[in-house]
Amino acid sequence: MRAKVGASIGAARQQSILALIAKGDVVSVGEVAQRFGVSQETVRRDIRSLEEGGHLRRVHGGAAPLGTVDLTARRPVVERLEVDRGAKVIAAEAALSLFEDGMNVFLGASSTMLLLAEQVAESDKTLTVTTNMIDIATILASSKRGSVTLLGGVVHPETRSVGGYETLESLELRLFDLCVFGGSSVSAVHGFLGPSQAHRVLVTTVSQRSHRTAFVMDSAKFTRSDAHVVLPLQQADILATDTAPPDALRRALEQADVTVLLPSGRAMVSARG
Q1: How many angstroms separate the CA atoms of 235 and 6, rounded?
Q2: Where are any strands of DSSP class E within 74-219?
Q3: Whole-number Å distance between alpha carbons of 23 and 68
Q4: 2-66 has which fold?
């Protein structure tokens, strides 16, 4: 029993280390040891284990993010809208081909998803939409085509979204033809990444209730990293983006049977032929 408890505490401590470096800073061994009341050697073992698992990189005296953490994912959504906006709009254009009249879809909350919602509202699609983002619900409801459901839950003003237990509970009896999410990074090794455990839980829950799962990301996310795996590549179906992924990521997507969609006028990369 003690061994199991110790392993559980160690795993929780390692998750906390990953959360600490998610801000993009180097975390020192001494800082972590003091925070958790353990020896520095224990922390070094944690860091070695996380490095071997491909979650971070060791540096002198501590640990650093494996790649460039997407710090914009921690900023208010109104600020994120202007970061790489042009590429996000193009990625959203690529995703438009996923929507067909009569579909029952779920749209997640992010700046890219908000830009996608604007394009959907301007299209001629009639959809049944469920979302946890307040602005997406408002934009699509104003188009007066189809129906829009805004999930209940705790309001998060910076992301303009709702979340928490009530949000997850309201999804229990729902099924979707398609669910679409944004994200802060996509990794050839770990899959689609995000800034929080709450993001992971929502994506996993909705994906399990959807016929297909898509992510919409601009190509800047190909070179970034983040603290949480929100969905492994093998559990996703589609990536809509503005530019073809680099070779290593392209091969990983193909192996995972993920279709890559690019906007019309650009090359189409299809993992499913």
Answers
A1: 31
A2: 104-107, 128-131, 147-150, 154-156, 161-163, 176-181, 185-187, 191-194, 210-216
A3: 10
A4: Arc Repressor Mutant, subunit A (1.10.10)
Q: Are 63 and 50 in contact (CB under 8 A)?
A: yes
For helices 111-122 and 134-142, the axis angle rounded to 10 degrees is 10
pLDDT digits (tens, 9 = 90+) for 188-242: 988 999 888 888 999 999 999 999 999 999 999 998 877 788 999 999 999 999 9
Identity of the amino acid at 52: E
d(CA 180, CA 197): 18
Parts of the chain belonging to CATH 3.40.50.1360:
72-261
Q: Which of 177, 161, 184 lies closest to 88 in space, CA to CA?
A: 184
Q: What residue has token string 């990293």?
A: 225
| CA–CA dist 135, 65 (Å, integer) | 32
- Per CATH, domain 72-261 is 3.40.50.1360: yes
